[in-house]
């Protein structure tokens, strides 16, 4: 009994030593490498080192376990099974690290090249699935399982799966089409033909998430979005015109109205956040209304949501200035003439 316990002391000690070495490597060496990586301009080294965290200890523990098993003097068949399990864990852990690195690089390059590769969970998930799929094939090959028949079976079965998952696949390819055409990207403000509007939050393999201004989410299947008529307020650029309708009394001096209105509009462009200071506002008279001469004031803002504060401030300041200048914004008035003929 004691002899058997004594034979286990060395393997257990080696296993524990492996864990301790792993802890030292991760806590000391990896932390120093991370500090050095933060000083470099390239983000890739930060991604690689961050992806290794937690797995260094696991790998050294597996190495200690493998060395411990060799000292136990087990039967060759049992030893073979244990080493195969250890190898599977090694391949699986390396696959997960590579998947994390791949996802990190996809996110990094999508941030740098937003117009070419938008940052969406669709690309992230596809990258993760491809790397994990390759890792599974490597594990099967290392276990002596032939991959060729499996791929053939998957190819034949893929037809049945494609028919069963027709809606899912149509959403997947519609999502890829939306991203490849770059007409809709995360962060854009869009309005659907059905009336819903908001910021595009994410484009996944199945649907697109749109956040409304009241902070509600609209979930749209990618296939529906690809077929819909969509107005993108961030294309071809984020800047947009803000058109405000105004009416003044028929007794007004229109030259003075134009001068005063443009002065107020320029003031709003300069002072209100979201305005374009270098833009020259202008007005265009267009209608003889029932009780007023109507015109449009054209201003400009940096993006869609800025128009609300621009309108708010312009209306307040224009109303105040009109009162100071004696310019009247009339109430709706309709004059009725009654023809009284003698009977």
Automatic annotation (TrEMBL):
Q: Where is the Mechanosensitive ion channel transmembrane helices 2/3 domain?
A: 125-166
**Sequence intervals crossing the membrane:** 12-34, 55-74, 86-110, 122-141, 147-165
List residues of the Mechanosensitive ion channel MscS C-terminal domain: 242-329
Q: According to the lineage, what is the superkingdom? A: Bacteria
Subcellular localization: Cell membrane
Q: Which residues form the Mechanosensitive ion channel MscS domain?
A: 167-233
Recorded topology in the membrane: Multi-pass membrane protein
Q: What is its main location?
A: membrane
This protein's UniProt keywords:
Cell membrane, Membrane, Transmembrane, Transmembrane helix
Q: Which GO terms describe its cellular component?
A: plasma membrane
Q: Give GO MF terms, alphabetically.
A: mechanosensitive monoatomic ion channel activity
What family is it from? Belongs to the MscS (TC 1.A.23) family.
Stored PANTHER family: INNER MEMBRANE PROTEIN, YNAI-RELATED MECHANOSENSITIVE ION CHANNEL
What name does this protein carry? Mechanosensitive ion channel
- Can you name the source organism? Candidatus Thermokryptus mobilis
